[in-house]
Amino acid sequence: MFVVVGVSGGIAAYKTVQVVRALVTNGHEVHVVPTENSLRFVGTATWEAISRHPVTTSVHDDVAEVRHVALGTQADLVIVAPATANTLAKMAAGISDNLLGVTLLATTAPVVVAPAMHTAMWDHAATQANIATLRSRGVHIVGPADGLLTGGDSGPGRMVEPDEIVAAALAAAGAPASDLAELRVAVSTGGTREPIDPVRFLGNRSSGKQGVAVALAAADRGAYVHLVAAHVDDGVLDRALHHPRIAVERAVTAVEMDAAMRAASTEADVVVMAAAVADFSVPEVSDVKIRKEDGTVTLDLVENPDVLIGLVRARHPGQTIVGFAAETAADDAELRERGIRKRARKGVDLLAVNRVGWQEGFETAENRVLFVDATDEVASQASGTKRVVADALWDAVLRLR
Ligand code: CTP
Fold first, then answer.
1. Which domains are delineated in the chain?
2. Ligand 1 atom 20: the closest Cα is on which residue?
3. Is the model's pTM score more than 0.70?
4. What residue's CA is closest to ligand 1, atom 4?
5. pLDDT in tens, 321-378
């Protein structure tokens, strides 16, 4: 999940470091938005090191990219911890004179707030009215706890402990249960590149986004993932490289992909071939750059191993194998027919059939997929972001197992 953690100016900010650390360790992408005042308690360097992302308090950075709105719109979850009486009042009034205020106005994600202040301030009618307003808008309020406060007083006002904030936040975001816990999964992604000479290759338009989304969804749901990545677009692997339950291995050509996936699959309960494997390669790669003056060039191509068919042949008992099919089809009926035939030919348990064309399927964030199983029926369908499709794939796998 993409999580924004807002930090306002209270001494409890030091405990929020643990909140950010726990979220990052669980594979979430965390962006910290401190208020200016909070930096007196915990500084930018700490937030950047713990969250592994740059931190700014300014609404005026990256104006061209509307960064001030982007954080809020991208967020799957926003946490404000600690939330001071001042920040709660601003939230209730919709004041957006800093990056946190803007982010909170721009987001439609669940918002979880952990108040921290002196008991007298918490008990004040103004604060209580603000809390009631926020609750009525669906904001989740966790705490405050009753206990010892800074300065030796005691009473309600203490920020709840980090693990309680994390649990409340994940519950509010409807984080999927760990329904793939302990499952070992091998996933391939990206497009293989078959060299022609030292500067050229045969490749394809695969960005790797769908396969990486499949890996992240599995890992977020508790699985251990071995991700074999061919060529992917810039930045696509970033979250996977930091995920504690994903090991990333690179493979360039179909032959390398074949070897890597065979090895990864020996230990896997579920195998997903989402990579776009080139069907052909050049048998004799030229050691020198082929030149124009060589005249017309004819490339002989030989067929590559079909990685998926090899994995199906080597399948061990209890292993579930999933393939992808990228098809150009005139309509849904043709897409379905092609999917049913390809599933049977490949012998997989589940085939995710994806309609592609010049405008569809590649390099986009959105995707639409039919899942065909061994009954040769469309078991389910999914459309939406590649993450939505990925979660639907794992739901379909769970139904088969
Ligand atoms: N695949 C593979 N090895 C290949 C080609 C494809 O493992 N050499 C896998 C892909 O990863 C995908 C599935 O097979 O999971 C289907 O890929 P697709 O390109 O649609 O199938 P092809 O067998 O190449 O069939 P077509 O004749 O339609 O191109």
1. 2-172 (3.40.50.1950), 184-400 (3.40.50.10300)
2. 325
3. no
4. 306
5. 999 998 888 888 999 999 999 999 999 999 999 888 666 665 565 678 999 999 988 8
